[in-house]
Amino acid sequence: MAPHQLKACVQFGMLDQIIRTMPRKRKLLTQLSALQNSTSFPQIDAVEQLNTTPGADPSPKSSKYFVIEKKNSSQLQEDFFNQPCVSLAKSFLGQILVRKLPDGRELWGRIVETEAYLGGEDEASHSKGGKQTQRNAAMFMKPGTLYVYQIYGIYFCMNVSSQGEGAAVLLRSLEPLQGLDAMRELRRASRKAPARLLKDWQLCNGPSKLCQAFGIDKAFDQRDLSQDDAIWMVPGQDPPGEQDVVTTTRIGIGNTGEWAQKPLRFYLRGNRFVSVVDKKVEREMAARGHSPGS
């Protein structure tokens, strides 16, 4: 039998029939062995059959080895987060935080207010003195790592690590863009006060409120914003200019001496979703001719 005939027989499952009908089995098996070892012989396997079956999905999903992750091409990557703390806090303004819920719904919010915490020297920082603990470990991890901590034993706040040992940016307020009904559901479920319909501007205008609205808890601590499937950031469409950013003091750190007066809070001027507006600083900006959007 010619080699090309043997190839066809092997391919179509006729090997047993050939062995039964040909007298010189040993010679046949020798030829078959040589053919199977040849680099020109087309290997037939289950994966190839799945890929060539008409109408079949070319990328089987039954095994983890066939899953190909589709990364969002616009997702902010590690190089974005790899900035000094103050620079990152300002750069966050106007960017979009995206949260994918377990049921597949996506929540989108534009970052409108942040605070910078500079690490060891910063008396208001959880990492003051350079002290690393189990609680604040995320502040010492690669830029873009989430640091989520609990306050009053009830609420959560979300920070993002930056350049610098123990430095991180607190996300203070978001402007809800998508999934507002789901945000209301999550806020309602986490509040102990009598349920009332929250207005849009009330959903995420504070660090704990935005965590409630986005379903963020301690389970998100130490996650990587550039890699995580449930939470990430994408670029905003209209980056704010310098005249659109108010630089003022942080909130709720009154017992930290001179650090309570450091201008390390940043927010979008004129945005009604900001938690606390500094009217004095805004008047000073206006007096200097810094009008929003100019």
UniProtKB/TrEMBL annotation:
InterPro entries: Formyl_transferase-like_C_sf (IPR011034), MPG (IPR003180), MPG_sf (IPR036995). It comes from the Eukaryota. It holds the Pfam family Pur_DNA_glyco. The keyword DNA repair applies. It catalyses: Hydrolysis of alkylated DNA, releasing 3-methyladenine, 3-methylguanine, 7-methylguanine and 7-methyladenine. GO terms for molecular function: alkylbase DNA N-glycosylase activity; DNA binding. Keywords: DNA damage, DNA repair, Hydrolase. GO terms for biological process: base-excision repair. Its EC number is 3.2.2.21. Gene3D superfamilies: Methylpurine-DNA glycosylase (MPG). It is an enzyme of class 3 (hydrolase). Belongs to the DNA glycosylase MPG family. Hydrolysis of the deoxyribose N-glycosidic bond to excise 3-methyladenine, and 7-methylguanine from the damaged DNA polymer formed by alkylation lesions. Binds MBD1. Binds SSBP1. NCBIfam families: 3mg (TIGR00567). This is DNA-3-methyladenine glycosylase. The lineage of its organism: Eukaryota, Metazoa, Chordata, Craniata, Vertebrata.
